[in-house]
Design goal:
This protein is α/β, with parallel strands linked by helices. The chain has one domain: Rossmann fold (3-Layer(aba) Sandwich). It is built from 7 helices and 7 strands, in the order E-H-H-E-H-E-H-E-H-E-H-E-E-H. Strands 3-2-1-4-5-6-7 form a 7-stranded mixed β-sheet, sandwiched between helices. Strand 2, helix 3 and strand 3 form a beta-alpha-beta unit. Helix 1 runs parallel beside helix 7. The longest helix is centred in the last third of the chain and has 27 residues. The protein is globular, with a radius of gyration of 17 Å. The protein starts with 6 loop residues before the first strand and ends with a helix.
């Protein structure tokens, strides 16, 4: 299978890219290319100093930066981002665009361009606690459980079809940082699994 025939995946990050790493490693160790003709082909960040870019480059992946500070508006940034994402995928738009700790709210136009192909992971059990500071809010609300949700992206923030969820306990004396670390270990499991299920469903 040539590169242009693959189901190409582009990942968007803003920081260390730990979920991106989990996806890339799952794609290799679980043989996504052989099983479903899928491969991660590129990583894009809105931050030039994102550590995940270095790791992705070392893995032989295409990388690119679209610095949101260089654009006068969110719409202008999203146009440049879309062009970059599509440019990383040979012969056209990628099969999936995966947000993995990408800390920018996307415009409806960007979401529409990748409609049905844009995925995100959110560190709460949606529909509870959309937006930011999810772990602090869960603790303050007295929740006994927290978790993470993989979902399709729509124009409405942290909505869209839920694809996978993981549940973790909120422990006595938990801090937001401790809860976040516990949730993150589950994110690394459910995000690759959600993508695998989508790929498998396409081959049935």
């Amino acid at each position: 299978m040539t590169e242009t025939q693959q189901k190409r995946i582009v990942v968007l990050i803003s920081g260390s890219g730990s979920n991106m790493k989990a996806i890339v490693e799952a794609a290799r160790t679980r043989r996504w290319a052989e099983r479903w003709g899928a491969a991660v082909v590129g990583v894009v960040s809105n931050r030039p100093d994102a550590p995940g870019l270095t790791w992705a480059h070392e893995q032989g992946l295409r990388t690119a930066v679209v610095d949101h500070k260089s654009y006068p508006s969110r719409a202008a940034f999203d146009v440049a981002l879309q062009q970059t994402v599509d440019g990383l995928s040979p012969s056209g738009s990628p099969h999936w665009v995966v947000l993995a700790g990408f800390m920018r709210i996307l415009t409806p136009g960007f979401v529409a361009h990748y409609q049905g192909r844009l995925l995100n992971i959110h560190p709460s059990l949606l529909p509870a606690f959309p937006g930011l500071h999810t772990h602090q809010r869960a603790i303050e609300a007295g929740c006994r459980f927290a978790g993470a949700t993989v979902h399709r992206v729509t124009a409405e923030l942290d909505h869209g079809e839920y694809l996978e969820q993981a549940v973790v306990p909120v422990l006595p004396g938990d801090t937001p940082a401790a809860l976040a670390a516990r949730v993150l270990t589950q994110e690394h499991l459910i995000y690759p699994r959600a993508i695998e299920r989508l790929l498998a469903a396409e081959t049935r």
